[in-house]
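Data deposition worksheet. Section B asks for the primary sequence of the deposited chain exactly as it was used as input, without tags or linkers unless they were present during the calculation. Section C holds the resulting structure in token form. Section D is free text for depositor observations; keep each observation to a single sentence. Incomplete worksheets are returned to the depositor.
Section A, Depositor: J.P.
Section B:
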Amino acid sequence: TGFDFTNIWDVIEDETTPYIRGMMLTDKNYIKNTTTYVREGKGTIEDPYLIYTAEDLNQVRNSLNAHYNIMNDITLSGNWTPITDFTGSLDGNGKTIKGLVIPTGNTYTGLFGSTKGNVTIKNLTLENVSVTGAGNVGALVGYSTGTLYISNVVTTGTVTSTGHYNGGIVG
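Section C:
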């Protein structure tokens, strides 16, 4: 039982995660120097992480299966990189995210590029969006597998696509 580090598994201490001997190492095996992002809340349904700033919102991509509540209106600056494979929940608390800009022209484009599983997003306004993609494009979610529950979400602005499966809220 456990990892057999004599015959099957190997690890480079403080550099990699365990890997099977003889397999090619990729960037995914190496431990990157990261800083811990301190958040309010525990990320559970009962005690969600609280989002106050654009950086708090950006950090959602590092805990994809957590639950979040937005506590302030947020103004984004610069181009947004879509959050992919989100599996948690987001309660906008009636707040507004302004200035979402995604000019990539890629597929799976939106605030959340993709969601998986049972995801809930509610009580949120996306104002003055400018989202451009090549398919599966929406201001809120580009592509979803599983069940996506959306309620009380409003978007304003433009969503542009050169492909299929596009919408003002979900692609």
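Section D:
The longest helix spans residues 54-58.
Residues 117 and 146 are 4 Å apart (CA to CA).
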